[in-house]
Every structure is written in C-alpha cells, then in structure tokens.
Design the sequence.
C-alpha cells in the first residue's frame, strides 16, 4: 500500500526512484477509505534526509498513511531553506486542534544541553502534552526518547564519557511484545549520541517496561505499560552511510571522533559500510504502525486520544 505525501516534497522523487509506491494527493482523496494520519515532528538539522529516511520506513507497510511534517516555531533551522519549511511543514499552532493516529518525534543534536536550556523546550513540552489527548500513539527517537521520558516520567539523562557511535548487538527483554515480533533474539541497531538513560531508572518505574537492550550501548526500546508511548534510543531510520557522513563531518570540525563501532569493514573508514540493521528497523516501524496504531486507533479521527484505555490489552 502507498504512502501519501505532498507531490512536490523532495522525498517523493527519491522514494519513487526506489520503486516505492507513493500516492498523489489527488488519487488519495478519491478513495473511500481513511488513511492513517501520522505527524512527524522533525527536530533534526538534516531535515530533508530525515524526512526521506523515516518515510521510507513508513511506506514499506500494507497501510495507507497520510504524512504531515511539523516544525518548531521557536527555533530557526539553519540547514534547510525557509521555502522548504514554509511549503511542507506546519507549526503546532496550525495542528493543535487536530487529531492524529501517530506521532513521531525525532532526535536532535542538543543532547549535551540540559533539557530546559534547549531554546524550543517549552514548545516541545506543549506538543508532548497535546499528544496525550490528540494522538493515539507516539514514537520517540534518540534524543526525542530522552526528552519524552524526562517530560512524561521525570527520568533524567546522563552524559557518557565519550560519544556512543556505531552498530551494536542487542538482546530482546520482552520477546512476546508485538513491537518486536519477528526480531531475531540478537539483532543489530545504530546508536549515535553523547548521553544515555540508565536502565535501572526505567526498570524502577511502574509505568514503563523495557523491550530490548545492549550490553554495550544500553537501553534500546522502552514502552509505556498502556502502549501509547514508545521510546527508541537509537536511530533505526539511518541509511547505510549516515554514520559515515557524521564521522566525516566531525573530522572536518576537528573533533577527532572515534571510528564508529562495528561499522566500517575492518574498521577502515575508506571502505564502504554495510547496512546490518535495516531489517529490524523496518520491523520496528511496521509493527508500531500495525499493532499500536492501525489496529487500535478509532475510525472516527475526532475520537483519537479519547479512548486511551483501549490499548491496555496490547503487551
């Protein structure tokens, strides 16, 4: 089934070039079905790359999805044109009276700041509060996961001795959860961050449960017991070359970064990396959309957020 996005969005051409079914807006409005409404709050500076990466994952499902992009109004993005933002993004003021089946909150390169020192933190708090009444299920990614846990549950992040960057082996903690259905017992996932949320802090909270961890990288997937909030501490959306681009960017800035772990063949940055996390990453998005959005969201979009208890039966 297709993903519905604006015809002129840069991601449209890229996805069509990969033979991904992208439906035009005209064709979508002439169908007698309701697509899932998914809102992406894109906090990454590389907005076009992140849009394309996440939409690639959303598109590879048997569901029709109407994607909308959200930006913070209290922060000026320097790495994308104002025209792109004005054309394809909406502000919270424009969507706050609407309802969505799903919300994705991306990561952001602000981990080393205290949450309250981030210039758009008050706006992000309003969006996260709004999501509890106007969104059926929310998926938080990397710093977005740390921010969500802090805002909703008061769990603090902690600075790491050095940047965690690479592809790490993970283990399932709750293998019966539909979110990780189809995952291997051991699987690989990408991390790229300077901070962490400690496993013991999450394990001690009665409203949260851990689904997957890594002995080296720590927490990977956490969810709320009521199955409305999901927190992923890696970057399942990353392309094969994203860590490489980050590594080269840091080198150019004189940061002298460590070579990403388990990424370049033989740890040789001159060789092309292999994507060893794509299958689990796709399952993560597909399972979230299927089990925690599509199968439980109300058909009447106006009722989204009113029946939070309806999801309690999903583990």
Sequence:
């Amino acid at each position: 089934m297709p993903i519905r996005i604006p015809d002129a969005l840069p991601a449209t051409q890229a996805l069509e070039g990969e033979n991904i079914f992208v439906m035009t807006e005209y064709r979508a409005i002439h169908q007698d079905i309701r697509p899932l409404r998914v809102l992406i709050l894109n906090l990454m500076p590389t907005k076009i790359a992140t849009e394309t990466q996440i939409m690639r994952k959303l598109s590879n499902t048997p569901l029709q999805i109407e994607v909308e992009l959200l930006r913070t109004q209290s922060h000026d993005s320097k790495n994308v044109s104002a025209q792109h933002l004005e054309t394809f993004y909406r502000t919270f003021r424009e969507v706050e009276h609407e309802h969505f089946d799903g919300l994705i909150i991306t990561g952001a390169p602000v981990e080393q700041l205290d949450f309250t020192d981030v210039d758009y933190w008050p706006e992000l708090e309003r969006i996260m509060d709004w999501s509890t009444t106007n969104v059926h299920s929310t998926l938080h990614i990397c710093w977005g996961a740390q921010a969500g846990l802090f805002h909703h549950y008061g769990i603090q992040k902690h600075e790491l001795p050095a940047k965690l960057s690479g592809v790490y082996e993970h283990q399932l903690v709750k293998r019966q959860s539909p979110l990780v259905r189809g995952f291997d017992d051991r699987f690989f996932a990408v991390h790229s961050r300077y901070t962490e949320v400690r496993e013991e802090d999450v394990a001690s909270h009665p409203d949260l449960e851990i689904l997957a961890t890594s002995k080296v990288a720590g927490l990977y997937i956490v969810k709320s017991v009521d199955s409305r909030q999901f927190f992923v501490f890696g970057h399942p959306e990353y392309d094969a070359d994203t860590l490489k681009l980050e590594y080269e960017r840091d080198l150019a800035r004189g940061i002298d970064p460590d070579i990403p772990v388990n990424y370049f063949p033989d740890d040789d940055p001159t060789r092309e990396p292999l994507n060893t996390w794509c299958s689990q990453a796709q399952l993560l998005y597909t399972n979230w959309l299927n089990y925690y959005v599509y199968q439980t969201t109300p058909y009447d979009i106006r009722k989204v957020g009113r029946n939070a208890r309806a999801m309690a039966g999903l583990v």
